[in-house]
Design a protein that fits this description.
The protein is mainly alpha-helical. It is built from six helices and two strands; from the N terminus they run H-H-H-H-E-E-H-H. The longest helix has 26 residues, at 45-70. The chain starts with 44 loop residues before the first helix and ends in a 7-residue tail after the last helix. The model is unreliable at 1-33 (pLDDT under 50).
Length: 198
């Protein structure tokens, strides 16, 4: 079951007896449509942003899953292509060890993914000319085309969705997403169990 789609169960709050004239507790609450009840969380605009991000993540996960099934790929393999794409754009090709760390997979699971991708013609393993013990993994021309088919339409749709926002709005959204990404990354590091042997 995809845990990302699970929603916390609302906490039932029975009406107080003998209080027919009590004011509506939600009368002054902000308008946050379809927001599930999170115990201990105020239903304010910031909670609404968190909920929107959760829904966006669900939609992104579904998009990735549909794309992976269409091309008969494992989800892990598509994630690996994404990391390799980002590394090449940054001009810093990955070794299998660094890819394993990026994917948070064991070396054996990463090797199995790379074997599948190599058999499909999506990746190329090359020895470092300065150190033959080290191997770099790069995308094949076919994989670059496939990655473009995946990322570019999504990026275009998102750019179109932002077209009506001002430059100031976009700058604010950018800062907010950066802060939320950093907060999530920090929490992930706090709760991730230590790697074996550490």
């Amino acid at each position: 079951m995809d845990r990302s789609t699970e929603q916390p169960a609302p906490s039932p709050t029975p009406p107080a007896p003998d209080a027919p004239d009590a004011p509506d507790a939600d009368a002054d609450a902000p308008d946050v449509p379809e927001l599930p009840a999170y115990e201990g969380f105020a239903l304010d605009d910031r909670t609404s942003v968190v909920e929107r991000l959760r829904r966006l993540q669900i939609e992104l996960d579904q998009f990735v899953d549909v794309f992976a099934r269409r091309h008969t790929m494992h989800r892990t393999d598509l994630d690996a292509l994404g990391h390799l794409w980002e590394a090449e754009v940054a001009g810093s090709p990955l070794t299998p060890t660094r890819l394993s760390a990026s994917l948070h997979l064991s070396p054996a699971a990463t090797s199995a993914s790379l074997d599948r991708l190599q058999r499909a013609g999506h990746v190329v393993r090359r020895h470092d000319p300065d150190d033959r013990r080290r191997t770099f993994v790069t995308l094949s021309a076919e994989a670059r085309t496939l990655s473009g088919q995946f990322f570019q339409p999504l990026a275009q749709r998102m750019r179109e969705a932002l077209a009506d926002f001002s430059d100031e709005d976009v700058a604010t959204i950018d800062r907010a997403l950066s802060a939320l990404t950093e907060a999530t990354s920090a929490l992930t590091k706090e709760i991730r169990p230590p790697a074996p042997g550490r």
